[in-house]
């Protein structure tokens, strides 16, 4: 029972019922009480209304309106009760020092240091080994947690599914023919067979634009890449990988909708504005005997945003 | 191979024999090839194309046609893609001129030549001061290239710009003309289109869409892939580079959607052989239903601006209002 | 404590007293009476943290509802529901279940919208509450730990929100996931590995939605619950801070007692917060995923922004110039890493370390239970205002295209404007705020409530000013604060078990 006495609660006190601290804050408590009554009644009605609205399957907004209104009215009534009708106070509470007394602190430090020190001092090697063991376990425990999550990147980011002779198809799988598009047209294309796959859409996606009726050269060394005016660029923005679908045919700009990087279509999709650092890789094209467009090879550089292993 | 089979199997009424190649401008219009099946590629490279097997005269040009030099800016050899190379072609029995073409999804109607006189009058008083009396973009006393050349662009192009209120230009110096209250009504727009088209008949003609049996779901998929990048998935439009912008689609009538898709006005790319008329019809169905009448089950649409507007409402109305309630709950001092 | 078998209780407080005694027999609850007496200062700015707490409760409740319907899977299903533009398309189960929840489940759309609005309000309230704590210096000793917990709560809340709105796998949030993937890729040395491990391979893969789901529904909520509990426990143990004023010292707390006044007001506030969120969920549409369509890596929409609490990241990414370092066989995309990894890292590290920074700078190791008026600490207020202005400008910068469209300006102009403002506005905010604080200091009673007067016109036309009746909230300031009474004594009674000769006295004992 001695512990109980040491923990006797503070400040048992009494206050007269007429004390101003216990009076309601409102000047006209009866009026306030009447208002709160109305608030509560409306709140109850609205809450019941929620039930009705649900059972009767009324429009979705009625569900929220009744629930919201009901809760709000009840809440406002309760706040008003606490604020205007309950003892207005103010009341005070002493802050006792959080810090313990000097003796207690010394005792605490002694318990931690002396007891613990006594153990470790005598068995330093054991303590060290224990620490090492737990540390090693912590490290190796992370292996499955991290490594098992997914595959190593290896060379995945360096290649797409475009290769020599791959046909360009649109989202419906239809091959694109050189006679299909007018100048100023754009179509999103994928390697044949890949238009419905995740990789095809995420990585291989390419925009095909017709710039003229005769072969188009965007840069030196790319004279054969633009047969009959068709040029193809990777649709993955080199900034953060959003599809660069926004083509302004008079300005000859491809604009990325995410952060408004702008690429000049005529000179190899060089970025002219915005945060993208590198041009969109261009897909070398060729035309088969029937006029269908094919890729000459994969992109000459990794598509999409930059990463550490990317050489340039 | 596929194209040749399509050509062979097509149940269309007539075949236009003229083929064209080369740059934009003034040639005979269709560049389509006949059932004997050489593909359009030959047309594109500037050599004369092969002629059709069942040859009746196509849309005759009123000007002399140089077969090898030019073709329509909307060239495509794809079937049912906005050109007279379509399932149904209706010709005037007397003159042989194409009056309409199309299929069950979209019918393209060449405006009647009876409108030419009205159209010419309207053109001269509204358009000639900039686009010139010959509609070639050379105003009197001006230089070539001052204003766009309207010849050979097809009736749909002219009709779109005038009927949507962009032309006559309210501010000729603006970078991009905006949709506005049209100064010329639809009939007048068609008349002007009729006259300008008569100078050098071309395609596409003025479309009218049949939305019955449209597939709104396919339309949504096509819209998301082709249109949302500029016009936003909600169809509200947004600012593009250098003071250009993609306009909102909330107010556009169905046939103008087709006109815009097929002709690619201004900076908008044109969708010719990359979308068939059936696909365009599906897109129009999606635009006129879900874009223009969005299903806002959740309450007020907040302008369809997405998280920007929602953030404002959440912060101002949500946190702000609740902070005001907190101001009431607590003390001032 | 022997119980009589009679039905009539001998306890002076009747049946309730008996129940309390039974509880005390088992749990010792009577010793917790001090909890009932706890005094809470109730300045209105202390309510802001409660908005966050109660919106968190709404999040938990609505979230439980949503987890019963949402399917966290990227497997494709064909949609056959009531929303025509999606019928027949192959969409992920996650998206299908979210659309289903919006259209086919009664009350589902309301719950979805309440959940999303509650999240916006949650993060917004945390930010506002944190600003209050910062500007009044409540993070000082002994509350540095609470500041650390609170900052962690903010970071987790932002992450939780991002994960949450990415779960429906719609076009807008899927674009955000693509951007997040590329940001992870851009981290030097380990970026590709972390991205491939987290996503199970190249983007998009099929594991990210289920992983986001479990992190959003289990891992982070558990951490949040623990941290919120610790945050509240510290608050109770260290007691709340208060503004200086009449009768308030570093060693007391003046306000309303926990039971019944504070509990009534705070429970009412909980109901109001819930009600406000429900009203928003009823009338204001948020995240209409059916209009966006499902996410497909080849699709993109314009005018895509993240939710506002991620806005500062998007803005930073937009305005960053296209600097990329590549050499020695490697590439560091600085235009990505700097604004989205380094910049937030610096900012949040600063925030975490702020109590230590201030302590070092002001050489003040004292305990502080009284708050500062922000104008009395001009340097801290100005510094906080600058950082706030920076974040606000970056947030505005995330909607460059919307601004350009709305004001008919060139996109390029708007971007350059944002670049300049990002540097200039925080730099200007510091001295301006500093000056405003200094001016307020020189003004007696600045920011305080003035006593009101009633002006009366006499019959002669003279104007006389008399003090107005005291406002309800200020009325109790006229009185001196008293300890919370245990007994209420009728005027002619003597309170039982109170020391003789002191009917309204106080007997103090060591705790």
Care to describe what's here?
The complex is a heterotrimer of chains A (312), B (333) and C (511). Chain A is an alpha+beta fold. Chain A has helices at residues 2-6, 29-55, 60-85, 102-122, 124-147, 198-202, and strands spanning 12-16, 91-94, 168-169, 186-191, 206-210, 230-234, 246-248, 253-255, 262-264, 270-273, 282-283, 285-287, 293-295. In chain A, 35% of the residues lie in helices and 15% in strands. In chain A, the strands form three sheets. Chain A has a five-stranded antiparallel β-sheet with strand order 3-4-5-6-11, with no helix packed on it. A four-stranded antiparallel β-sheet of chain A has the order 7-8-9-10, with no helix packed on it. By secondary structure, chain B is an alpha+beta fold. Chain B has eleven helices and eight strands. Chain B has a four-stranded antiparallel β-sheet with strand order 3-4-5-6. A two-stranded parallel ribbon of chain B has the order 1-2. Chain B has a two-stranded antiparallel ribbon with strand order 7-8. In chain B, a hairpin with a 3-residue loop joins strand 4 and strand 5 (106-109). Among the domains of chain C are: 1-37 and 483-511, no CATH class; 43-296, Up-down Bundle (Cytochrome Bc1 Complex, Chain C), CATH 1.20.810; 448-480, no CATH class. Chain C contains 17 helices and eleven strands. In chain C, the strands form four sheets. Chain C has a two-stranded antiparallel ribbon with strand order 1-4. In chain C, strand 7 and strand 8 (463-467) form a beta hairpin. Classes of the chains: A alpha+beta (312), B alpha+beta (333), C mainly alpha (511). At the A-C interface, strand 1, helix 3, strand 2 and helix 6 of A face helix 2, helix 5, helix 7, helix 8 and strand 4 of C.
């Amino acid at each position: 029972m001695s512990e109980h006495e040491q923990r006797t609660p503070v400040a048992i006190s009494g206050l007269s019922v007429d004390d101003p601290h216990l009076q309601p804050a409102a000047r006209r408590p009866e009026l306030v009480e009447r208002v709160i009554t109305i608030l509560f009644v409306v709140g109850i009605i609205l809450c019941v209304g929620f039930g009705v609205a649900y059972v009767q399957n009324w429009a979705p907004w009625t569900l929220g309106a009744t629930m919201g209104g009901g809760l709000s009215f009840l809440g406002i009534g309760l706040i008003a009760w606490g604020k205007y009708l309950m003892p207005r106070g103010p009341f005070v509470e002493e802050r006792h020092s959080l810090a313990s007394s000097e003796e207690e602190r010394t005792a605490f430090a002694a318990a931690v240091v002396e007891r613990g020190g006594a153990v470790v001092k005598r068995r330093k090697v054991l303590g060290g080994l224990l620490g090492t063991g737990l540390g090693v376990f912590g490290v190796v425990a992370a292996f499955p947690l991290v490594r098992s999550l997914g595959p190593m990147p290896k060379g995945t980011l360096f290649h797409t599914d475009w290769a020599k002779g791959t046909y360009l198809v649109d989202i419906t799988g239809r091959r694109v023919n050189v006679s299909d598009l007018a100048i100023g047209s754009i179509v999103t294309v994928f390697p044949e067979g890949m238009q419905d796959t995740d990789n095809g859409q995420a990585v291989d996606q390419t925009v095909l634009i017709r710039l003229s009726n005769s072969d188009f050269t965007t840069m030196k060394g790319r004279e054969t890449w633009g047969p009959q005016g068709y040029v193809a660029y990777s649709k993955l923005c080199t900034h953060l990988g959003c599809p660069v679908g926004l083509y302004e045919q008079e300005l000859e700009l491809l604009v990325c909708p995410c952060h408004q990087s702008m690429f000049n279509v005529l000179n190899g999709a060089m970025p002219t504005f915005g945060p993208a650092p590198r041009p969109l890789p261009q897909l070398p094209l060729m035309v088969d005997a029937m006029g269908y467009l094919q890729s000459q090879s994969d992109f000459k550089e990794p598509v999409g945003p930059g990463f550490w292993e990317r050489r340039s | 191979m596929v194209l040749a089979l399509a050509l062979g199997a097509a149940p269309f009424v007539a075949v236009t024999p003229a083929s064209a190649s080369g740059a934009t401008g003034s040639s005979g219009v269709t560049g389509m090839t006949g059932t004997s099946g050489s593909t359009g590629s030959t047309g594109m490279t500037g050599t004369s194309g092969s002629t059709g097997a069942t040859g009746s005269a196509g849309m005759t040009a009123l000007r002399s046609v140089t077969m090898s030099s030019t073709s329509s800016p909307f060239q495509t050899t794809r079937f049912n893609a906005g050109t007279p190379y379509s399932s149904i072609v209706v010709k005037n029995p007397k003159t042989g001129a194409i009056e309409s073409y199309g299929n069950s999804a979209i019918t393209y109607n060449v405006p009647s030549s009876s409108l030419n006189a009205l159209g010419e009058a309207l053109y001269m008083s509204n358009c000639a001061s900039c686009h010139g009396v010959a509609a070639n973009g050379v105003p009197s006393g001006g230089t070539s290239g001052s204003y766009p050349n309207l010849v050979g662009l097809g009736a749909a192009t002219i009709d779109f710009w005038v009927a949507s209120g962009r032309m006559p230009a309210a501010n000729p110096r603006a970078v991009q003309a905006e949709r506005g209250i049209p100064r010329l009504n639809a009939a007048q727009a068609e008349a002007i289109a009729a006259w300008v088209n008569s100078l050098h008949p071309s395609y596409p003609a003025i479309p009218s869409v049949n939305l019955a049996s449209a597939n709104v779901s396919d339309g949504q998929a096509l819209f998301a892939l082709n249109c949302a990048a500029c016009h936003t998935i909600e169809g509200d439009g947004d600012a593009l580079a250098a003071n250009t912008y993609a306009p909102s689609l909330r107010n556009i009538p169905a046939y103008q959607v087709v006109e815009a898709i097929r002709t690619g006005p201004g900076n908008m790319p044109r969708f010719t052989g990359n979308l068939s008329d059936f696909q365009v019809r599906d897109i129009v169905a999606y635009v006129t239903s879900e874009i223009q009448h969005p299903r806002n089950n959740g309450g007020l649409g907040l302008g369809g601006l997405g998280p920007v507007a929602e953030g404002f409402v959440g912060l101002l109305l949500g946190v702000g209002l609740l902070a005001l309630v907190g101001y009431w709950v607590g003390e001032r001092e | 404590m022997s119980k009589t078998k009679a039905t009539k209780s001998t306890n002076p407080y009747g049946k309730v007293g008996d129940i309390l005694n039974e509880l005390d027999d088992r749990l010792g609850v009577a010793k917790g009476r001090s909890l009932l007496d706890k005094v809470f200062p109730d300045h209105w700015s202390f309510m802001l943290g409660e908005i966050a707490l109660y919106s968190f409760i709404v999040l938990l409740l609505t979230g439980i509802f949503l987890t019963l319907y949402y399917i966290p899977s990227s497997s494709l299903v064909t949609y056959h529901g009531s929303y025509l533009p999606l019928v027949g398309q192959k969409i992920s189960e996650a998206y299908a279940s979210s659309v289903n929840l919006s259209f086919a489940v009664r009350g589902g759309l309301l719950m979805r919208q309440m959940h999303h609005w509650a999240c916006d309000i949650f993060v917004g309230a945390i930010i506002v509450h944190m600003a209050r704590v910062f500007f009044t210096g409540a993070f000082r000793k002994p509350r540095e730990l609470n500041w650390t917990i609170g900052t962690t709560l903010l970071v987790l809340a932002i992450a939780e929100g991002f994960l949450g709105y990415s779960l429906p796998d719609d076009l807008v949030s899927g674009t955000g996931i693509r951007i997040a993937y590329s940001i992870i890729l851009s981290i030097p040395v380990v970026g590709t590995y972390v991205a491939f491990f987290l996503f199970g391979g190249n983007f998009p893969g099929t594991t990210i939605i289920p992983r986001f789901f479990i992190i959003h529904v289990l891992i982070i909520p558990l951490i949040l619950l623990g941290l919120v509990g610790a945050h509240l426990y510290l608050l109770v143990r260290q007691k709340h801070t208060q503004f200086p004023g009449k009768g308030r010292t570093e060693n007391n707390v003046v306000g309303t007692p926990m039971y019944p006044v504070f509990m009534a007001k705070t429970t009412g506030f909980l109901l109001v917060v819930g009600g406000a969120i429900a009203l928003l969920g009823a009338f204001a549409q948020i995240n209409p995923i059916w209009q966006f369509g499902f996410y497909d890596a080849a699709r993109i929409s314009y005018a895509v922004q993240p939710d506002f609490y991620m806005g500062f990241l998007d803005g930073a990414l937009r305005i960053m110039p296209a600097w990329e370092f590549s050499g020695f066989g490697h590439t560091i995309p600085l235009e990505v890493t700097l604004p989205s990894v380094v910049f937030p890292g610096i900012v949040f590290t600063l925030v975490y370390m702020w109590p230590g920074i201030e302590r070092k700078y002001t050489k003040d190791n004292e305990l502080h239970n009284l708050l500062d008026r922000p104008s009395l600490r001009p340097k801290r207020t100005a510094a906080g205002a600058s950082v706030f202005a920076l974040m606000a400008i970056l947030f505005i910068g995330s909607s460059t295209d919307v601004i350009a469209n709305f004001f008919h300006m060139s996109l390029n102009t708007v971007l350059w404007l944002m670049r300049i403002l990002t540097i200039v506005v925080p730099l200007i905010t510091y001295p301006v705020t500093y000056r405003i604080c200094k001016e307020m200091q020189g003004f007696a009673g600045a920011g305080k409530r003035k006593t009101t007067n009633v002006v009366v016109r006499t019959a002669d036309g003279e104007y006389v000013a008399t003090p107005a009746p005291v406002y309800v909230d200020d009325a109790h300031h006229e009185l001196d604060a008293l300890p919370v009474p245990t007994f209420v004594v009728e005027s002619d009674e003597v309170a039982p078990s109170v020391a003789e000769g002191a009917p309204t006295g106080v007997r103090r004992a060591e705790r």
